[in-house]
## 1
Amino acid sequence: DGDMKFSLESVKKLKELIDGNRHINPRMMIPMASYSPCQDKHLPEEFWSVCKREDAPMIFRRLSLAAEDDLCEICANAACAGCF
């Protein structure tokens, strides 16, 4: 994301954290903007520096989108183009 680099495995772990914390109560959905993976003790260490940035929510959103299940691992890499 920009000049920051993260391992694909860590990005997948981030997505699991975000997806797993979206629903706490079946009657209440937590909007993406109100959940911060920075508060999760399972957040991979390489994201700790992102938590100090004001644009952290947008960075985490973009990384989460990059790890969507319907993308091949090659296409999940921002440097890759032309898979589709």
## 2
Amino acid sequence: QDPSLERHFRGHRDAVTSVDFSRAKKQLVSGSMDSCLMVWSMKPQMRAYRFLGHKDAVLCVQFSPSGHLVASGSRDKTVRLWIPSVKGESTVFKAHTATVRSVHFSSDGQSLVTASDDKTIKVWTVHRQKFLFSLSQHINWVRCARFSPDGRLIVSSSDDKTVKLWDKTSRECIHSFCEHGGFVNHVDFHPSGNCIAAGGTDSTVKLWDVRMNRLLQHYQGNSVVNSLSFHPSGNYLVTASNDSTLKILDLLEGRLLYTLHGHQGPATCVAFSRDGDLFASGGSDEQVMVWKTNFDADYGDVVKPQKYSSSVDGTHGTGVEMDCGIHHKKTKTQDSVRTQEQQEQETSLANTLEHIMGQLDVLTQTVAILEQRLTLTEDKLKECLETQQKIIQNKTN
């Protein structure tokens, strides 16, 4: 069964630049050149929230792993952290000196990595909202930066035509991939953490093994690739291109599976939901579209890595072994070790912990907002006292 269009969201007044699902798939956030963020409810007839605060185009948005916070980056050089509720309050992170193009939470929700036109990648703590350190070896705008699933590595892509791999602890660049023939717009880690995919203005998508630093697959398209997203199973990759299409690549077979037409004008961003049932896309046509995956219903068997010769749009890619953890989900066996009761207890405990973490996120953010207000009040009070003193001085003179 082919992927199908599920929902259509209209509300932005300019090109949509970024989309992301909350973990529970209840909400979808989008950023736009209209300087707004919008949080859409996946429930029909539920209103959307428009968040105002950035002074210029919003170029990137992402939900925290708990879903209780949203990070955004803008052309106004700031990063904001929002509580996605009716009030839509936010706190500001300032350290970049140019447009912020990318925001990404670590999988534990404790850190945030941002990428900017100031040629740097910056890492922040989420709870204390402090800037930690900069990574600066790119010699042009940095378009995208992502944490590895285990949080130990960072990958970045740039207009200097390179993709760089960084060690978060030592803060050193471990490797530079220089095979792209143009600006590299987007990069991300495979769910296994063992390989990365990157796409850019040379109309290609390339996959590298980060353990061996070797090229695994190469897909040659016919239009600029703006964004890409791995399916949680790790077996598929979706891309958004300037030719207005979304393309789904089958990484097991090493071939193009579907080409989807929906947007008028360039498709600018795309993202799978956390469970892979849905994916969302945005375009310069100001529209946000939600698609039902459908093709992921058949990954029941365990598939061994095999040889591929990738072919997209009739152009052959590199035929190499894909052994970076791409395999299907295992089917449940009857002699399963865990009892259903144990599973239920574990799920309940996991949900409780997640809820506590989420509440902590909200509390931290609320405290930060209160601190901001207190600072503003103190500033106003100081102004008033200074004015009062001037008046008294003038009177005595």
## 3
Amino acid sequence: MSWRPQYRSSKFRNVYGKAASREHCFDGIPITKNVHDNHFCAVNARFLAIVTESAGGGSFLVIPLQQTGRIEPNYPKVCGHQGNVLDIKWNPFIDNIIASCSEDTSVRIWEIPEGGLKRNMTEAVLELYGHSRRVGIVEWHPTTNNILLSAGYDYKVLIWNLEVGEPVKMIDCHTDVILCMSFNADGSLLATTCKDKRLRVVEPRSGRVLQEASCKNHRVNRVVFLGSTKRLLTTGVSRWNTRQIALWDQEDLSMPLIEEEIDGLSGLLFPFYDADTHMLYLAGKGDGNIRYYEICSEKPYLSYLMEFRSPAPQKGLGVMPKHGLDVSACEVFRFYKLITLKGLIEPISMIVPRRSETYQEDIYPMTPGTEPALTPDEWLSGVNRDPILMSLKEGYKRNSKIVFKAPVREKKSVVVNGIDLLENVPPRTENELLRMFFRQQDEIRRLKDELSQKDIRIRQLQLEIKNFRNIPKNN
């Protein structure tokens, strides 16, 4: 009997990536040069937000999606932070509400006017202070409105109830900087990766660590929950410094189900998972390509499909929510690629080739919509509920009627679990001490230069006075 290769039937076998034409890109954008490992981009069905390079504080652009082409240099910005903006995320239930976090230790909530910005926005509707160091990550709860998580360089994750404008819970189980956070489908579990080389699955309301993996052979950087499959996928680096992905059972992190090496490049691998199509996308920071796979419930679990190639390296990628996709073109995923060298944001559509122009129900199942399933009080009391689903055939043009109302508050101390977060500062890391040392050295050099300039000026003035005194007087 002759050997035959195993054939695996898949409707996504021929998915291909299609980059938008130049007139449908966003050009002339001063994309930030910050080296923080984030996307610096967020997108929803109405707006595109990009963190920009700025002096004297942090700022980001908010551009309506239909306003493609070249963006003017004086285009209005959101510029209320006093430090570099490190992360931005749109509210999944209110299209014009965006959260940002910064090196100035604050998290801010902004309300974008209808039609976009007409002038610079400096006043946030809500300013959240609870971290004692810079804040690197913000994450919205997937099923509950007005619940926001933030992770700072003080090793803490704070859960904010935006209806009261205060942190209501604190997760304090990390011993180093948190690199990534990911919720499961109903928001009952939170997975985190940390610089201490540990992968954790945490119950967010109690802060209790349910599972923990010490990743010595696979140094984890990023993690994502694979929908409701009770599995996690991480990207990281192997002991031979090759880029690697690993699949885990969320109820047993003692050993990964599979580990697979990708390549020997050095850029961070960003994972993106589409629970509707069970497709995984891998995009490397500084790469020009995007690999995509199909996740299966049985071995080998991971099946390689294809790769989108581009010569332009990407700094980060924004992802369009499902209800913003073009279903008439059989588009199942859309990236917004940041190309720093060109100051360009390039949309990339992942398309299933179909001859029919009618709605394809097999590739567009019911998907999480724009209505929250829980209130903050319900979720904080322990209730879990699956997201409210919507059909893209009828509901993708429906606008949410939820309105954000900022609370009125005045409070200088932030106390959670009996601890004042602004007073309880962890010891500084070695990198932070080195940065502080170099800043102090630069300041000393600057002051010496100023003193030498003043000495030169004093000598010049003394010489002028001496020459003036030596001028003979006329009789």
## 4
Amino acid sequence: SDGGVEANECITIYLVSSKDEVGASDAARITPIDLNSFFEEDGKIYGYQGLSITIWVSSISFQAYADISYKSTSDGGKGVTDLKSALQQFVEQNIFGETLLDSKDDFLQTFSSDGNYIRSIISSGEVLQHPLTNGHDGASTLSGKATSDLEVVRMVMDNPDAGSLYSRLVPLVLLLVDGSNPIDVTDSGWELYVLTQKKDLEHEDVQSRLLGFSAIYRFYHYPDSTRLRLGQILVLPPYQSKGHGRHLLEVIHNVAISEDVYDFTVEEPLDAFQHVRTCLDVQRLLGFEPIKEALNSTVLYLKQGRLSKKTHVPRFVPPSSAAEDVRRVLKINKTQLTQCWEILIYLSLDPIDKYVDDFEMIVSHRAKEEILGKDGGSGGKQVIEVPSEYKEDMSFVMFKTKDGKPSSVELDEDQTKQQEEQLKQLVDERLNVIKSVAQKVQLQV
């Protein structure tokens, strides 16, 4: 019988910027999140022997060509997968047709014929200023100069060019952004922020190169404001780890401030993006006067003595007045400010080695509060695993205690130990993130 072949095993994808790179051994290979999810229910392709699929995606026109080879086909009981139909699930455009070209010659021709594609399609958009160049008060603090050849253009989705461009980018979004779905290009609430390099020095016939983009949704906020929410952000693999994501984020922050939106939020941020975002926000917060005052008060309290000797450990959260000032001026929402707060404390405790035990207690206390509730267990929620014939890891009961009184349900020794291990793991992970962001910010100051 036909065991099939996994898509991950037989498909390779390359992002190429010239016809010379097509087939070259040093072409930039894309590492997708998971190709199996695009093929049938079990991620396998059936009916082919010796199957090899190479997909070339142009970083000039964002069209693609699939080179498919195999020794033979036969129905081994599971049928023969329709490759063209299956491939189009992740290389076709969302609404405006197909990016997958049938002819390799046609694909190679696009590198010379479409050198002006990006410059032409973004010409109907609005060029946005980087905060470093317009000196807007409250904008981000930067280390180093913004590169003059970078440009961010905003295109609103009621512009057909914006929908057409995004549709060509959909395959890369699906391949490279975990858990993503294409945005609705018919919804004018979406805005596309496109980061480009104005002149491609490597290829004289390419007038503008797309380095990355972000899709932002603009919500109405009563009574007369709007909110910005980042839905997707992607810097193309060859241009990652060069500060381009930060540059794009800084421009979006500047828009939020200059247009005086209510706040700026992010939909389910991935860890790598959240790290860049937090580094940027911590740097902005360190120079913000209301936060300086709140931090000084917190640090003075911590320097008075060891927390372990106190009968009650206070909640170390930013004051509500400072949180409101941060939202109003910097457009950072309360959830993100809370994420940054412990990092700000860490950076303010100098030397940190002297206060490291107390700081770890702060982190542990907040983590415990999140797991067990504000009273450290007796007054919050608890999750108890129960025996079941269903899935073992899905079987539990969650309950609340009444009136702050201890519950009659008690954790046994193993469950208590498991809970302590989970807490320790959470605290260790959080401390690693705090130290990593703090180190990055200190290098940039």
